[in-house]
Request: fold
Amino acid sequence: MPADKVTLKIPRPLYDNLKQSIQGTGFSSVNEFVVYVLRDLTSGLKPKGRPSRATRPVPAALDARDARDSSGLTQAEIEIIRKRLHDLGYI
Reply:
């Protein structure tokens, strides 16, 4: 493995769900999708002085606190991802 890359382990059900979810979206792999999502999520974060996870406001769409499925994502989170992919023209 190249020195500029690391391995990130995620639960197999989440990987399988993501693999199925990205079919036909233009992403060539789960890895490509995860890197895209993580870059997008962290692009607005400040390295110092940011609120902890416990104090950070929860987006309104995620406030439903619905049950997580076998992928580890709530239905609201899945819908947010689908909307972002749709808005970007991937689906």
